[in-house]
Model the fold of this input.
Amino acid sequence: MKNILFSLLFFVAAIVQAQPTSKGSWSASTYPNQAILLSWKHQQMQHGEHIGDAMLAKPTSNKTEIASTPIKINGRGDKPITLSLSGNGIIIQIPGSPTIQILQAFDSGHIRGLQVAMPQKAPWYGGGERTLPLNRVGQRIPLYNNAQYAYELNVEQLNYSVPFVFTTAGFGLLFDNPAKGYIDFGKTRPGILEAGFFSGDVNVLIIPGKTPAEIIANYALITGRQPLPPRWALGNFASRFGYRSQQQVEEIVQRMQQENFPLDAVIIDIFWFGDSIKGTLGNLDWVNKTKWPTPDKMLAAFRKQSIKTILVTEPFVVQGTKNFEASKPYLAKDASGNPYMHNQFYFGYGGLLDLFTPEARTWFWKFYKTQTDLGVTGWWGDLGEPENHPADEYHDLSDFGISRKVGANEVHNMYGHMWSKMLFENWKKHYPQKRIFFLNRAGYAGTQRYSVFPWTGDVARSWGGLKAQLPNLQSMSISGLPYIHSDAGGFTSTPEKDEVLYTRWLQMAAFTPILRPHGTALEGLDPEAHDLPSEPIFKNEPYKSIVRNAINTRYSLIPYIYTMAWEQAAQGSPMIRPMFYNGITDTALLRATEQYMFGNNLLVAPVLAPNLQTQKIYLPEGNWYNFTNNQWREGKQWIDEPLQLENIPVFVKAGSIIPIWHASKYANTAQYTPDQPLTLRLYPGKNTLSGFVYDDDGENPYAMQNKEAHQLIEWNVAYTKGNIVLTLTPRNWPGNFSRRFDIQVPAKFASAFGEKRKPVAKLNQKAATLLAAPSDSQWLQIPVVMRGKKIELIITPSAE
Done:
């Protein structure tokens, strides 16, 4: 009852027009690329400590108290930023950016925060995980990580809240406060963005940028970019809720291999530490020796086959488990200082580890180290919102310099962040030669720097659940979480075995950062749960073969996807990009929300409903090739694309290079090595584009920093005097190293230029011959060898 009354007070207070209790004072400091952090406080403010951990970058100027106006602040190497007080607000003028006005700061006693003038008619985006329409104008989103079971469209609150938003008018806002809160995008007061928080300090980081791409890159510069993943993380997973025994896991892995499905990892849910759903969280060991007789041998056998094993963990320890008594000193507390016991927690009576304390983090880590030393390769963190986190539960933040008890609602959104940080820092210390993989579903602004691979939670296994992934994936991606993905196929149990839905979901997932089929299949453990396995080996034909082809396509694109991973690590570029990512000079891009760019060069349009014959797709300015059949299409138009079950619409931007890995049979990414021949597919167009191809061993955490440990080639494609000119320029190339690249062009591309005859080519000014590619008659190819020197290929669409 106490929690219900608190929530009611919280939201009623937020709706009432906020008024400041006293006049406060402003301070400011600058950050890289002319970002500026503004803070407001007043003498009577209670619980106004700064707890947020979003920002990694250091300020470029000292904090300046704004006592008189206007003042000018110089960031290191930047032009001056002008600040002017305006009542209880402030006006910010950043050179090259629109004027930004904070109308007022407020502290009503229940809620504190800021009101910002919204540029007229400009859309707003971000805020983390939601299935609402992408444009936030007119919405009011809660900031409170919250699990929703079987969700579909129009859910305003999910597992991962990120207090970072931006407008296409030219700036973003980061509110570095992990307390329970909200952002109101003019819903209560049109034209006014209001951010309010239950507790903590009042601050906002203003991040300028001419385009969404620039704003997001600046945000990543300040909060951290995600490190390179292990290459195997980009492959296919076997995963479900859940595998019940060692024998079952081994049999499914064997069958996946026998039926020629590539497989890089297997994920084991809660049954590795118990036989039931309830009453087992906290065992954190293979307690059933009958079901899991030799886990060490299982892990070793999988490693020999280059299959990684990932185990689930949760931050709750329930009564009756192996570690319950030992965990008590490390649990969050009640008002009396005793371990807080959750008596309305689905999984059992127990406590929550207080991961804000170094002692709890150290205690929790030892379980990870034990199993990692046994042979576990990656980890899965579940329920990290935390899923059950009452307001009267308290955390010890003395490590943050705070001596008082800190309530759950003051730090709720940062709990998962601390968990990710704990695992990342310990992994870096104990396994410095390996990249970490941590699958999680909750975090905070900046959590991406701890190498997290978030999924979109317990989505409904329905067409509505699939459709909900489009706003969800795009919103999370532009909120700084590059490896967002979904339980492919849908998680929640449904009675219908809809194999078309499964096929369409897997076809989309092949073009997302992580490909991980996952769903409920409990084999009679819960009579109310329908048993629908998530692995493709259990599907009927033709769906099984179609899904196999989608997964194989995914593996062929590993070099392209891995280069996207490098672009994120080096530049902060998201992998899934809304159509408006590079700007909105074409306003049709704002309406094309059921498609996205996968990196710079692939346009993906998932099929989101059954029985469709065609799909309306917007092709931006330029020209485009159908990824499946190389059909040429003009851009800057809506098209009705015919659909077939075998694939979803994917288009390649003309002028692009797509690096492709060819294997006679894809088993897993361990087959791939950075010295193998690689195919570079050139999609010619009458334009100029450039990009990169990055490669390394897929494992070394420091490969990007070591010149001898990675390859980086910049490509440039131009259309000049009727010729297509491709240059490959090594930006980093290991000494005494050579690698073959097979450059391919579509066999019928000349028709796109109004030509009918075979194209001719010159390689480094010498005549060369384009021959039919041995692997695919749709392509012509010419081999080149990179030895660290620039390569130029000139192609004339037709002979004279």
User: Anything to note?
Assistant: Residues 51 and 177 are 7 Å apart (CA to CA).
